[in-house]
Amino acid sequence: MPRYTFSVNGKTVAVEAPADLPLLWVLRDRLGVTGPKYGCGIDVCKACTSHLDGKAINPCVVPVAEAQGREVTTIEGLAEGDKLHPVQKAWLEQDVAQCGFCQPGQIMAAVALLRETKNPTDAQIDAIQNVCRCGTYFRIREAIKSAAAKM
Amino acid sequence: MGGPAPRSTRHEEGAVDRRRFLTVLVAAPTLTLALGATTASADAGSSVPQPADILDSGDALILAGTPTAHLMLVLEVTESGEVRVELPRAEVGQGITTAVAMLVAEELDLPLRKVRIGLADARPELLLNQLTGGSNSIRSLYDPVRKAAAAARARLVAAAGELWDVPAGRLVTRDGVVVSPDGRRATYGSLTTRAAKLPLSRITARPKPESEHKLVGTATSRVDARAMVTGQMRYALDLDVPGAKPVMVRRPPTINGTVRSVRNEAAVRGMPGVIDLAVVPTGVAVMGETFGQVIDAVEALEVTWNAGTVDALSDAGIRKRLRAAVPPPAVPPLTDHIEAEFDFAFVSHAPLETNCAIADVRKDRAEIWASLKSPIIAQQDVAAALGLPERRVTVHVTQGGGSFGRKLFADAAVEAARISKAMGRPVKLMWSRKDDMRHGRARPASHHKIRVTHTRGKVLTYEHRVAAVETDFRHGVGEFLTATATRLPVAGNMSFAQTVFHLTVKVPYRFGVVTESLNEVPLKMHTASWRSVWSANTRGAEEIIVDELAREMGKDPVAFRREFLKTARQRAVLDKVAKEGNWGRDMPAGCAQGVGFHDEYKSCTACLVEIDARNPSRPRVVKAVIAADVGRPINPRGLEAQLLGGLTDAISTTLRAGLHIDRGLPLEGSYSQFHYARQQDSPTNVRIFIMPANGEPGGAGELGVPAAVGAIANAYARATGTKPRSFPIDFDVDFTPFPR
């Protein structure tokens, strides 16, 4: 079985896995990194949203081979120790989470958006496809705007 | 809470702690219920009270739970000064652990961060007191939690009094410390061992007067939010149960189909990462090293299936049967009248966490981890499925990734237990999204016929006949609720579903002689209560009729509702949204306001929305103003969250989200097909107002949906000049269904 070496949240990992095994299952089932969630497995719900070299990806459809030599960041790697990322802080301030299951993905999507766009418009926020079944969208919107203002 | 995995050893440690440290188990107050004398009947004008005006489902649940209410809460003060409560309820996002932590902190004069709320394992001795549903958690916990915490505080104070030889009445508590008049201080942690040894009979305690509440009633953020935003919250499948391996099930092409034969078992067993395979009543289970490999193996299975239970049924046939089940109106239309019929589609609960559970079944015992709203029934069902005595089954309740009614049932726990038994090892069972939508439970479709007669500005009769596909209630309230309700003279001898219908659905308006009825059509499909049960459809349809009635009688929708609502409290929330939402303001063509009202769970709410339907194929609710009176808010911020969720549910199910049934199976298999709202469908302006405390706490978890359904449909009707009758409004099959 091929062996892949890449970084997860700043730590180098090496895993033996089939090349086409989705990264989500390498993270969850092999490495015990459970922040990214399964919600659909086909890049529709976006609950697993994480970053590959700083860009948003959905590891449920990214083969592990694509991570070779690159940097994977999940929700667990967003804060620096105890110091939360401004987007996480904004999520706490707006008390966004209800069941919380989609929120790691929502936060990673918001961080990726704010990297590209310092002050996203409502239309740009509308383009975030991550499903929140608890329906927290308005608080997510407010949290993104609040984080943008502080970053 | 939520963070570390619940381990079986934790409870053994807890047992040791409980001998050493103060734990409190306090009798709950006896519930007194004044039958007949309600605010509604006092002010009801021409309408007699309906059953739900007298005794609602929450009252019935509390009554049914009364015999074990004194066992419900065990509160423990640790040596580090933390207070721990194992709550016999599910946390699925509704924020009950935060609200209970607030009540405990308030009563004990303890910082909120020092309160730890865990979720209790199934506790069969609680009988009916471990059910999370009916928007009833705060209603059923408010008194018992405060009493338990007040008793703990009294004992800690008594322990300090004994230590210092000072009368307890001269001691005060603040921030988790007992303080004497001369300034001596003892932390709760330092007092807990001494307090545990005090004779119980010496100490009496009463909860604080509500006028002294400092934390309860103030906007408070979720106690579990940090774990959620850092990815540390552990849901069932995030737990590391030793040896538990990923498992999924290949399911039949129609609902309740069964396996006849597996044609390529050897080939699938030989696929990379596959560990085991077993045929179970629900399909073919495959275990593998990773879920990614299991997904491939399940896809590769070639299975011959036996028929399911509704193979011949599609939407058209179901609608026909529902229409046939609605009796004709009883009141002849001799005066002015309006009539309308409504259809509502099946709706998936679609919690983001699909059905899932971990099961470790051994020869003589079993252990389950899952998010469960009725864990005692889960324990019974698992025991029955395995042929084990109930006491040999341990059920751990994990934090849930959404429910909306789905987790009333333990489908995944029972299935995981069967698979673990068949494979002889622990399993981590996950349903695919496709299976969760197609074979998971759903809100039943319903058909509604309404006739209202009126003359000279008065409504004479109001008749609403509902037919719905049968809702499954076998999650552990049945006999008790029915037994309670049938003692009411108004309810009579009804089926269980009809009892729940009459304990939840009521018309809040003075509409003369009111008749509402439910006829169920039994179909062997997977159904369950869906946030607000029948109220979203039944009351939603009624709010549409209220608008049409107002128009026919030449009245403004808000003014009409004001005139016919029964109580001042109801009118106040309506007035609040009308004022804050600037009701009646000019709107561009294709845009409109709409309003809706709902009263249930001893709470009431009004919702005003603005819709932009200038693109008629993709209308969007752009603004919402909501007001709610819940009697006594515990955490206004949590209440706002629940109302926001109810609004999003209403946007989804009114405009675009539903399931098409086609030859025995829903067509929808993911969120790209079941159109639950996304950010682009959500309003950019939402304002929510929680009315000040004026009584006892009412329920709120499901409260927001029906009023918002009415408001959105009414706004859509005005913006487009149509009369919406079938929901969701935009319900084309705009996708290629996944293979069966």
Question: Quick recap of the structure?
Answer:
The complex is a heterodimer of chains A (151) and B (740). Chain A has 151 residues and is of the alpha+beta class. In chain A, strands 2-1-5-3-4 form a five-stranded mixed β-sheet.
Topology:
The complex is a heterodimer of chains A (151) and B (740).
Chain A: E1 3-8, E2 11-16, H1 23-30, E3 50-52, E4 55-57, E5 71-73, H2 86-93, H3 103-116, H4 122-126, H5 137-150
Parallel strand pairs in A: 1-5
Antiparallel strand pairs in A: 1-2, 3-4, 3-5
Chain B: H1 8-20, E1 23-24, H2 39-42, H3 51-54, H4 57-65, E2 75-77, E3 83-87, H5 96-108, E4 115-119, H6 137-164, E5 172-174, E6 177-179, E7 185-187, H7 188-197, H8 225-229, E8 245-250, E9 258-262, H9 265-269, E10 274-280, E11 283-288, H10 291-300, E12 303-306, H11 315-325, E13 336-344, E14 347-348, E15 356-361, E16 366-370, H12 375-386, E17 393-397, H13 411-423, E18 427-430, H14 433-438, E19 442-443, E20 446-455, E21 458-469, H15 478-486, H16 496-504, E22 513-521, H17 535-552, H18 557-564, H19 568-580, E23 591-600, E24 603-612, E25 620-629, H20 636-655, E26 661-662, E27 665-666, E28 685-690, H21 704-720, E29 726-727
Parallel strand pairs in B: 3-4, 8-18, 13-29, 16-17, 21-22, 25-28
Antiparallel strand pairs in B: 1-2, 2-3, 5-6, 6-7, 8-11, 9-12, 10-11, 13-20, 14-19, 15-16, 15-18, 20-21, 23-24, 24-25, 26-27
End-to-end gap of chain A: 44 Å
The overall strand count of chain A is: 5
Name given to the CATH architecture of the largest domain in chain B: 2-Layer Sandwich
Summed up, the domain count of chain B is 3
What is the approximate shape of chain A?
Answer: globular
Reported by name, the CATH topology of the largest domain in chain A is Ubiquitin-like (UB roll)
Proportion of residues in helical segments of chain A:
25-40%
> Segments of chain A where pLDDT lies below 50 for 5+ residues?
none
Written account of the structure:
- The complex is a heterodimer of chains A (about 150) and B (about 750).
- By secondary structure, chain A is α+β, with helices and mostly antiparallel strands.
- Chain A has helices spanning about 25-30, 85-95, 105-115, 120-125, 135-150, and strands at about 5-10, 10-15, 50, 55, 70-75.
- Chain A folds into 2 domains: about 5-75, Beta-grasp domain (Ubiquitin-like (UB roll), Roll), CATH 3.10.20; about 85-150, DNA polymerase, domain 1.
- Helix content of chain A is about 30%, strand content about 15%.
- In chain A, strands 2-1-5-3-4 form a 5-stranded mixed beta sheet.
- In chain A, helix 2 packs across helix 5.
- The longest helix of chain A has 14 residues, at about 105-115.
- The termini of chain A are far apart.
- With about 750 residues, chain B is α+β, with helices and mostly antiparallel strands.
- Chain B folds into 3 domains: about 10-30 and about 70-215, Aldehyde Oxidoreductase, domain 4 (2-Layer Sandwich), CATH 3.30.365.10; about 245-310 and about 350-440, Aldehyde Oxidoreductase, domain 4, CATH 3.30.365.10; about 440-725, 2-Layer Sandwich (Aldehyde Oxidoreductase, domain 4).
- Chain B is globular, with a radius of gyration of 27 Å.
- The interface between A and B is large, with 61 and 66 residues.
